[in-house]
Each structure stands twice: as structure tokens, then as C-alpha cells.
């Protein structure tokens, strides 16, 4: 008792002498470190919480944590006291008293102040619903007022009278609670909404098909199961106005995909909040409007649509040509391209053709050569992003040109003449030989007849 009173007297005396108190703002559950710049190493250090001694160190390097409700959370070092995962009742005034062999003594006061940060209700928010953000401090009496403010996910000060916000995609993300322009704590506001997609969607028979539907804010299926009734996917072909249901996922029944209408589409990882549709390869009939609709238990719906076009190369007169023929290639989706889109042609390496305009939708070549055979590619670019490419394989057979034709004709004529000549000569030879034989047999000329 005597010692305690003695300590109290010292404390009162010291706190009058010591100047500014330190203010430490913390959130419940945080680790809080009270740090001092220790004047010398040969002293004793005592830590108090509301005048109860909770820890100490001595000049021999001894470190002690005293019996107190805080005991399990404390660690003490040469120049600090660490409170691990500070509890709701652990906030308040902490003091550090330093005694050394010199007559000098120090007393440092730490005001550990609770910052209340939160959101009500918790969990992902349905678009349009209200939520209240908390970012406040109860400044203890005698201390300068601690100011708090909220910052929106894009880093702007939120200066509204109330901290009630309506869940919109603009407000979705990490808010920040700032106390005294120093302490910052983030508040997650996950608004259920689809991640915005590129304004344009394309596929081709040479590219995969990926219809992107995913949740922003990393919301997963488990997070929304309680408030969701069903998720459905629809497709309206470009050539039709009737939406066909592709898949349906009910939260009450086990997952049961509806008829896919022969589109061979696959669902992505739905449990991870990825509701995209995909197929390894696009097809001509993929052009149209894809919609993903989420129906919530309160009757509200959330939906997103992705309009798809199919890029293809149309060869005229065809993909199988003979050299010398004219060729026209058209790279098109069947619709005019948005003005900020660009086409780019890639020719087979062997092709000697020079393009006057690499970005034109239509290419015309007066004559093709066998070297033009191979894969011709047309790429669609938007803002330095290659969206899709289409490929056509041209097959060009050689054909003889006029000079070659003339040479061949002449050679043919010469061959013919030679043949005729040979035949004629053969005949003559035969006739002569026949006549010879006849003469010899029918009119034998005795040798000595003329001589004698
Ligand atoms: C969903 O409901 C169950 C039971 O009602 C509850 O235990 C669970 O925490 C809820 N999940 C979410 C994400 O709200
Ligand atoms: C969704 O899944 C598809 C394929 O399964 C993948 O390509 C895509 O990157 C995924 N999206 C996200 C946001 O994870
Ligand atoms: C796609 O379908 C949705 C839902 O039917 C509709 O709201 C949207 O306007 C359609 N988009 C286009 C480009 O037709
Ligand atoms: C998409 O949502 C709007 C309202 O947000 C609704 O009017 C429309 O019918 C929905 N479309 C589909 C296909 O469910
Ligand atoms: C390309 O040719 C098609 C006809 O083959 C024509 O309809 C289209 O307007 C042409 N496009 C351009 C950009 O010249
Ligand atoms: C495309 O990339 C080039 C260089 O990489 C850059 O200079 C240009 O600004 C980019 N254009 C767009 C629209 O991003």
C-alpha cells in the first residue's frame, strides 16, 4: 500500500512535469505498439495502465509482465510495449515511467483511443440498398478534438452530413476512414454488380468465345446465396428477336443446367463469382446478345448484356484459285466497325503482295500467284488491344502463262511434224523393199546372160 501511494505521488508529480501526451488511435483487434526513445540503458522502466503496473524492465535486461487482465497480450522490450490484438476494454491511458541512476526521471503518457470503423449491414450489398458507414472517435476529455473523415474508393473526401450511402457501382470498393489526417483504416463496400466489360465483343471461327460476366469486388457465390433466388443466362441470336435460355442456376435446388440449344457453351467457375460463358472455338451463329440475369429473393434483378459479332474473311471468287486470277478479300462482321476500331492484315510470309492499305476492310489483288497460298489473317484492334482475328487459307494452283503456252504449242507442232515425217519415211522404205523382193523373184536375172 505504501509503495503504491509512493508510486502514485511520483506519477502525479511526473505527469505534471512531463509535457505533451502521445495520442495513439487504433481499431479494436489491432496490434498497438507504445514506443519511447529511452534516455539511457542503465535505468528501470515501469508501465502502467490506469495506475496499475502492468510491465517493467530492469537495467540487467530483465523483462517482466505483471498479473493484469492484459497479461496475455503484452510483450515488453527495451523501448516499447506491444499490446497484441487490443480489446474493446483495453483502450485508455498508458504511462511509462523511467528511472535511472541519475536524479532525472521521465514519465510518458500514451492515450490509446478507439476508432470505431464499420459498416451496417455487413455482407455484399444489393444495388440500390442503403448502408451506414461508421468512422468515429470518442475523444477523451482534456484532449484536443480528434477529427475523422471518410474517403470514397476513388480517394475523394466524402463530405455528406450522414454516413449513409446508397450501394451503387460508383461507391463499390475500399472506402477509407481517416482520423486526424494520419490514421487510415479501410472499409470494404462490396456492391453486387457485374464488372464493366469492354464496349465491344467479338469472336471468330479461329478464336475462342468468351462471354465475360463476373462480379466486381471479389464477391463469390457463397456471399450472395442467402439473398439470391436464381441466376439465368439467355442468348438472342442476331438473326432473331427471341431470347433462348441457355442455363439456369437455382439457389434452392441443386445446379441443373437448362437445354443449351446445341450451342456447346460452358459455364466458368460459378462458385468463384465468375459467371462467364465460354467455348474453345467461336462459330458463325455466335453473333447476338448474351444476358446474365440474377434474381434476388426480394424480387429485384441484376442483369448484364454482351453484344457479340463474329469476324470473318470472305474471299471472292473463293479460297481455291489458279494463279493469275483476281482476288478480293473482305474482313467483316457484317456490320460497320465502330470508328475507334482498326483492322490489320497479316499476309503469309511467302506472299510477295504489297498492301497499299493494311487497315482496309477490303483487299483487291488483280493477280494472285502460287506464292500467295497460305494463311491470311485479319486482326481487329481496339486501343492497342487485339480483340479477335480471323484466318483464311488460300490455295493457289499454278497455271501456264501465254509465253509458256506459245512455247508448248510450238513444241507440239514440231513434235507432230516430226511424227508425220517419220511415218512417211517408214512407209516409203517398206514399199521400196517390197519392190526389190518382187523383182528378184519374178525376173531372175541369170548372171552370165548378158556377159555371154
Ligand atoms: C447465410 O445464412 C446462413 C443461415 O441462415 C448463415 O449462417 C450465413 O452466415 C449466411 N451467410 C451470409 C454470407 O450471410
Ligand atoms: C472467368 O473464367 C474464364 C474462363 O473460364 C476466364 O478466362 C476469365 O478470366 C475468368 N474471369 C475472371 C474475372 O476471373
Ligand atoms: C441485349 O439484351 C438485353 C436484355 O434483353 C437488352 O436490355 C439490351 O438492350 C440488348 N442489347 C442490344 C445491344 O441489343
Ligand atoms: C434487366 O434489368 C432491367 C432492370 O434493371 C429489366 O428491366 C430487364 O427486364 C432485365 N432484363 C432481363 C433480360 O431480365
Ligand atoms: C467492301 O466490299 C463490300 C462488298 O464486297 C462492300 O459492301 C463494302 O462496303 C466494302 N467496304 C469498304 C470499306 O470498302
Ligand atoms: C498504343 O501504344 C503506343 C505505343 O505502345 C502508344 O504510344 C499509344 O498511345 C497507345 N495508344 C492507345 C490508344 O493506347
From TrEMBL:
Domain of life: Eukaryota
Keyword line: Immunoglobulin domain, Membrane, Signal, Transmembrane, Transmembrane helix
Domain Ig-like as annotated: residue spans: 309-380
Signal peptide stretch: 1-20
UniProt-listed InterPro entries: Ig-like_dom, Ig-like_dom_sf, Ig-like_fold, Ig_sub, Immunoglobulin_dom
Transmembrane segments: 403-424
Protein name, UniProt field: Uncharacterized LOC112143674
Keyword field contains Transmembrane helix: yes
